[in-house]
Amino acid sequence: MAEHFEGSFTQQEPIPDDAIAAALEVLKSGRLHRYNTAPGELGETALLEQEFAAMVGAQYALAVASGGYALACALRAVGVAPGDAVLTNAFTLAPVPGAIASVGARPIFVEVTRDLTLDLEDLLAKAGTARVLMLSHMRGHLCDMDRLMELCGGAGITVIEDCAHTMGAAWNGTPSGRHGHVGCFSTQTYKHINSGEGGLLISDDPEIMARATLLSGSYMLYERHAAAPPPEYFEQPRWDTPNVSGRMDNLRAAILRPQLANLPRQVAAWNERYRAVEKGLRGTPGLTVIERPDAESIVGSSIQVLLEDWPGEKVEEVVARCGQRGVELKWFGAPEPVAFTSKYDQWHYAKPNALPNSDAILAGVLDMRLPLTFSVPDCHLIARIIREEVSRVFQSPGFVQP
Q1: What confidence category does residue 337 fall into, taking pLDDT thresholds of 50, 70 and 90?
Q2: Confidence class for position 370, pLDDT limits 50, 70, 90
Q3: Which of 43, 177, 300, 401 has a Cα at 20 to 30 A from 169?
């Protein structure tokens, strides 16, 4: 009898007991709003900002309502205006072009490589078309950040890093989010710390972060931030920066702080599961494992593989067969968006430019979450199931590659 996986790909770990206790204290106080604090008190949100900035080595941090809000706030804070062009990855998720569209700007998509990172040659070719790059570290894959920053520095491009999938990751020892001018993170349920929704911005630029803080809805209470720029950086922008309210509240911050302290252990657990699946899939006929460079310190909360040059109906067959055995795979080559999964040519509001190289790559991308509710033996089982079904389809008499 064929093996079957019984776990849930959407079931996260429980919120830790110390986070629940901290949340109860906030609820008992009734002081959920970040600025509803007693005299001299640093609320949970201010403490979270302080701790997150220290963890990544940033001068400033700001906690906001969602990762998508963090992206849009960063765009406004660096001066993106309606009608401006913003470079971004062809391989990303809908909130990235959505954030660009939300400020009235227009995305210019850059090709993706077989490693699922931004194609730096295509970026170089398009560097003159925009002065801002919103770099998505999609599904945790980091491009050569040293080369990217050298290229962008030479072209005068401001870099905003979308680190929704790379909290805890690094390139050559530098934490994700610390190469660009602004780093944006998510604390949505499926990210690396979980408050349901939430986001964080980091930067060393006091002018950018003063504007971001005012944009988030600080009113004139910015001095209550423990990880904000000094008051003098707010003097001019406080007169002409709109309030686009998107603050994080103390309840969510209380839930997040204990999780943040535990993040290194969680990263190690994800990576153990990732490596188990990766090892189990190596050498599978017709399947390409994406090799991660030595410079990249990963957070393996999901894994991607390629079925290169496969007919679409055969990829669909693999997805269906694995699904029948309890393994949930997402396909980025599907003709229509499905749940969280969509691709650049399906965002019609963005009027996307044609990207033939990305089309060929995304047609073979399979994606799978690795929640920490899975054990390492679970991951061995999942890899066996994928290996068996990919091999079965690839070696079937009707399989013909174009």
Answers
A1: confident
A2: very high
A3: 43
* CATH code of domain 263-394: 3.90.1150.10
Q: Quick one: fold of 17-261?
A: Aspartate Aminotransferase; domain 2 (3.40.640)
Q: Can you give the pLDDT at residue 159?
A: 98
